[in-house]
Structure formats: C-alpha cells, structure tokens
Specification:
The protein is mainly α. Among the domains are: about 90 residues, no CATH class; about 80 residues, no CATH class. The protein contains 37 helices and four strands. The protein starts with 13 loop residues before the first strand and ends in a 6-residue tail after the last helix.
Length: about 700
Amino acid sequence: MFTGIDEVDWAALRHACGSAEDVPGLLRGLASPDRTEREGALDRMYGALHHQGNVYDATLACVPFLLTLAGSEAVPEREGIVELLVSIGGEGTDEKDTGQEGPGRQGAGGGDREGMGTVGGADGPGGARHSARAAIRAGAEAFVRLAGDADASVRGAAASALVRFLDEPARVLALLRERISVERDERVQIALAESLGLFVRRHPAHADGALELLVARSAPPNGPGLRLAALGQLMGCAPVRAPADPVPLAVRLLRERSARRSARRAEDGRPGKDTLVGRLWRLWPSDEEGSRLLRSVHAALDDRVADRTALLEGQLTSPDPTDRCNALWMAAGVLREWRGDHAGLVALIGDQLGAVEGRAPDAAVSVLTDLFGLAAPAADPLAALVASRSDLWVRRWPRDRPLLGGPIRALARSGDPRAVPVLAEVLAGPVVPGDLGQAVGHLGGAAAALAPAVRRRLGDIHLDSPAGPALAAPLLSAVLALGDQEALPEVMRLVRGTASAGLCPADAHVREVVGVLGAFGPAAREAIPVLRRLLDTEHAIAAAGALWMVTADASVVRPLLLRELEGRDHRRRRAAAEVLARMGPAARPAPASLRRRTESGHPWDRVTAARALWRIDADPAPVLPVLRSAWTHHPHTRGTVAECLVEMGPTATPLRDLPAAELSSRRRHLALPGGYGAHDILKDERLLALCREVLVGQGCRPV
C-alpha cells in the first residue's frame, strides 16, 4: 500500500500547517488496526491537507496512496477515504445544485467550495486542485471496483465518485443501473439515487435513462427512504417527471421512514432508558441521511416559499423528535433567505420549546434568537420557558464573560415587555451581562422601568475596582439605549473618578462613555475637558462627535474631522464623515474632501460622504447618483441609503424605483442562496420598514 512513500520529498511539500513531513505517518495511520488512530489520522488529513476545501501540493502527492488505501480490503472504514478523495477532486458546484453538503467533513475543514483559494498549488493558483482532480480521474477505475465492494458503506461512497470522475457517461449509467437493480442495502440505494440525479445534471444528453430509473424508484413498492431520495432528485433536475403534489408526499414518506427507523432502533437493542448511555443517546439523536434527503427537496423547491413552509410545517409536526430538530435548522435557512408572512412557521418553532427531551428546545431558542421581531408569534412559549428556568437567565461565555441566556435574549429581542421584570431581577443579581444594553434597546419604551435599576448599579461601582470597567460598559450601553438623562450624575461620577486617578477615562469602556456623554448634550459640559483630552487618542473621532453634541462648537472638531477624511483607514474616514453628517449645516461649507470621497473606490466612503453632503448643503445633484450606484452594486449599503432617502423626502423621488423594487423582492437583500451563513434578519426587516417610509414620504402607497 505504501510502495514509494519514502521516495517522496515530503519535507519540500506544504499543507495548511506548514511542512508535509508528517504526511507519511498520517497515511499509515489510515491503515492502522486501531480505530482511534484511524479516525484521528483522517481528521488530521482534512485539517492539514484539505483545510477549508483547499488543495495543496502535498494533497496531490497523497492521491495515489489514498486510491490504494481505498481499494484495499485490509483497511477498515474505507468510506471515509473515498469521501476524502471525492472532496479533493470535487468541482464545488454539484453540492450547490442539489442543496446538499459536499461529502467532506465540514466541521473539520472538508467540503469543496470553488473559489475558496488554493495554497501551495503545484502549478500556480488552482494548479494543485486541477492536478489532483486529474490524478483522481486517472485512477477512476478504482471506483468501479469499489461500487461492488463487500462493504455497503464503501459502495455508497463510491456511487457519486463514479459520476464525478469516470469520463464515460454511457458506461457510468450502465454501472448505476446495474448497481441499483441488485443493491439491497437502503443506504446504498439512496446514495445511488442521489448519484443518478447528479448524473442527470452533469450529462443532460444521457439523462433519459437515469430519469427512468429515478421515476421507478420514486414509486411503491420501494421503501420510503429511497422514494424520498428519488423524489428530491426528480424535483431538482426534472420536475415534470416528479410525482404530483410533491410536498404532501414528501411529508408522508418522511414519517413512514421515521417510523421504520424508530422500529429498527428498538430492534437494534439500543441502551435502555435507565442507563446513562441510553439517556445520552436519546438526548443526542442523529439522522444526517434524513436531513440530507429533506435538504434536497427544499433545494428543489427553491423560491416556492409557500410550499417550503408547508413542508417545514409537516416536518415540525412529525412524531419523531429528530425530524423536528432537523426541521428547525432548515426553517432557519428559509427565514434567513426569504421574506414573507412567517407567523405560522414561527409559532410552530415556538412549540418546540416545550419538548420533553432531545435537542429541539435548544435548537428552537437558537433559531428564535436570530429572528428579533419576527419571533413575536413564539413569545408565549418563550416567556413560559424564561419564567420556569431562572438558571437560563445568564450564561458565562466566552471566557467566563457573563451574557444573557438564549431564552431571555430571544424574548427581549422580540420586543416582548415580559422580558423587563426578568432583566430587573438579573440587574439585582451579582453580575451584569455584557449584552444588557442590546437587549434593552430592542424593548423600546417598555424598558423605561429598568432605568432606576441601571442607575443604581452604576452608582454602586467601586471606581478603584479592577472589575469596574467590565461592569460599567453594559450599564452605560443600557443608559444610552434608554436615553436616560437622569443618569447624568452616575455617569459623571464615573468620569470624574477615573480622571482624578490620572487615567485616560474609562479606557476599557471609553466608547460607551463617549456615546453617553454625547447623548446628554449640553448637560454634560462638565465632561468637556475629558472629551478634549480624548482628541489626541485613538478615540478622537468619537470624542469629536460627542464634543460637538455637548458644545455645538464646530471650530474645535472640524479640523480634526477633515484630517481624518484624508487618512488611509476607510473605517476612520467613514466615522469622520458620519460626524460631519450629524453636524449638518454647521459643517458648511462642505469640505472638498467629502466630494472627493463620493468618487472613492470604497462603497462606504461614497455613501457616508454623500449623506454628509446632503445634510450639509441639501443639494441632491451630487448625492442621488452615488446613492443609486451604491444601492445597485453594494446591497450591504442599502440600509444607510434608505435612511438618507427618508431624510431627503420628496427630493429623493428620482430614486423611488429602488425602494419599490426592494419591497417587491422575495429574497432578503443580504441572503445567500440556500440560507447559508449568518445573515442579520434585523437589518433586512429594518430596510423594508425604511423602504415603506420612503414611499409614504413621497406620497406613494407601499407595496
């Protein structure tokens, strides 16, 4: 298996962790008789040789040995090696077409994604990937043998490899037809059905035979798992060949499959409910195959949000807790990607908070936390959970930093006033969560009742305590969110105390201090010396903004802001432009540097400069083209552009088409296809509200 391995100059090759000198040991570890060593070697192969989907020159050198290991029956668990080869040689498009994850270990850096970059390429950027793919294709006959291997897991892993790497479509189809006609293992049948769908997408000229096989597998007497797999593939690559009413059928097949799976678990003699292992197993059930099958159906439905919602409702009402838990993560993807009336779906998510066992309650909290106001239909079960579990009010993460627990954070973010008494109790406790101010901000006027408690905690801070800054920062954020002018004495006590100690005031929480002082305006005149001192620090721009709010003296802050506009750091340029925008006409005449920034290569430079120009000179001519360009080409700027359009009122009528088109769009403006990634629903919902406000301000009826 390892003939020639010592002839490779591994020290001259590189992988994600540096020198590839350790690779021979990893390859030998894959063939170890010790299971722990084999699994560790495979994990390290992903982490070093295929990190985040990249391919290195050392990865290329491994391909012949991996092919040999995959074909040796003396090596246990070879399916992992086959999956690694498939991921290394993948093209990064098939997974996105089907809505499925790639075959690699995503958590360990596996899974091919085109465009992620290749480091240490054999012949230039992307060269190692291309060469590795070619090497795997050259050895594709190995997958023909593996498709008939005695090990079912190996047969399943080899199915997609046949389609990806064997460059003879007619032969590939014949092999798939042969294998699916004789295969009896349901997991392998499902893998073959998924490979048939992949075949149709890659070889449309040869699709008819593959589609016939899929149509046959989508009907009785085939088992529900195979039928569900075939249904998903037909919906994705040939919807006219799919059965009618696919969503109710998918729900029924899912439930039939889950019932069979539950029966098999009981027959398998899983640990009993009275054992620790049994309890752990029930708490952490897993059905990755079922999740993958439903992801294929969701991917095929794509923008048919009503159908996807109906499918999710079927999943969330399944008797099987694992199905419901999988549905929660899929629901999160739909909610992140698509706009619409999601009240019914969110209410079903809230129902999972009362699950007796399993991961569903934690998963539901995680989903609801990211919904903000959209979580309102689940507020009742959230409030019940918060009231019954005071142990979940505060958590220490990361590094023992206290934060609000998921349920109370989700309830507060939804704007529900029932969060207020709980936050009051938290404030009366020994810690102050670091995200208190954020929670208060989402509660709006209902949070006013917290102001006395916040002032009291601020007044109790020992100025000479090392823990003082950590306590002060979230309390100051809460003061700012509350707009509590009555907190001025407590804030000034904090400022005076640190200043008298000869320290730069509140180094650890200066942003919060400056923000609060600016919000107090002229009432904070006592803090002017402190703010002036900060003009010579890294906090100069924020201090200048606060100083303007306190003194209204443009002569002090304008020169500093003009210098910052000419700097190289685009974040500081943006911050300076935002302060000038707040100054408005007091910053006249508009500096030439602002006009130059509207032609900058950085979109935020252009948008913030244009907004400042409007507020200073009220001249739409240089502003409107910048706003249109930014909105069109840089969606992440749309929230700020929409704010500017609201301020401009009827003057912005030439750009009316932008908010009108946004309101008619079904996809969230920052969403990635498939709902992947961490997208801020709050930003999108706020953008929609601003778009409606723009149209109302221009005398139009919002969509």
